[in-house]
Amino acid sequence: MPRATICLPTYNERANIEPMIRALEPLDVHVLVIDDNSPDGTGDIADRLAAENAFVSVLHREKKEGLGPAYVAGFHQALADGADFVLEMDCDFSHDPADVPRLIAACGEGADLALGSRYVPGGGTVDWGRGRRFVSTAGSWYARALLGVSVRDLTGGFKCYRRRVLESIDLDAIRSKGYAFQIETTYRAIRLGFSVVEVPIVFSDRTEGTSKMSRAIVLEAVTRVPALRFAAMAGRI
User: Fold this and answer.
1) What's the pLDDT score for residue 218?
2) Parent domain of 66
3) How many folded domains does the chain comprise?
4) CA–CA dist 198, 180 (Å, integer)
5) Cα–Cα distance, 183 to 154 (Å, whole number)
6) pLDDT of residue 36
7) Phi/psi class of residue 233: alpha, beta or left (left: φ > 0; alpha: ψ in -120 to 50)?
């Protein structure tokens, strides 16, 4: 059977890490926790869970550098460990563990990148105010328009990659640290000719812990999108 590894970045997710691992346990996947030296002890809990469960491993990083660098480190580790499919997923239950098999199945049926999408028929969000909904939909529209792609949820962070996609992308050239990382990785995959399938999901806001969204992350996304377009026009990606 193809091996699937879920990369699960954590920073101060003490309340969520064990329930998430327990929810993923029945799915026949490997879980790689990537902890950025969480001061709340998330890394210690992850180590205990790894000692108790063969399907869990932990990658400890020295400091918090952002979502992008954490995922890049996790991708390298998953590929080195022999994963055939590599997934991205939030630890706060915004992404439903029950949707993991659907993303893997989409890649098993031929997609190079399966993206859990809020903005295709059947997808949606729960417990979002008008302001957050506007920022998210406007951000996806902005990125789609500037980059000239048809993917509707470019900012989505629930993904399954075939191994060959991550092997083809120059992971170490990625500079995005926040949610712009999601735009950049999907765009790089499209530029390389890989197929992207959007799988409808319902995104639920976290109930435990604190959101990592900030003005700096939004600003990075706003400026990174045109930079990606210019890089593509110059033939650098």
Assistant:
1) 74
2) 4-233
3) 1
4) 18
5) 5
6) 96
7) alpha
User: How far apart, in whole angstroms, are the C-alpha atoms of residue 86 and residue 78?
Assistant: 7
How confident is the model at residue 211, as a pLDDT?
A: 59
d(CA 53, CA 42): 16
What is the token pair recorded at 215?
A: 């003005």
CATH of the domain at 39: 3.90.550.10
pLDDT confidence of residue 229: 95
Burial of 236 (0-12, 13-18, 19+ CB in 10 A): exposed
pLDDT attached to residue 52: 97
Provide the Cα torsion 32, 36, 42, 46; round to 10°: 20
Q: Which residue ranges of the chain lie beneath pLDDT 50?
A: none
pLDDT the model gives residue 216: 72
Q: How far is residue 135's CA from residue 195's CA, in Å, rounded to a whole number?
A: 27
Q: Pairing state of beta strands 113-117 and 159-162? A: antiparallel
Phi, psi of 152, rounded to the nearest 5 degrees: -85, -30
Closest by CA to 196, choosing from 230, 159, 142, is 159
Exposed/middle/buried for 112, CB within 10 Å: 0-12, 13-18, 19+? buried
> What are 46's two structure tokens?
């992850």
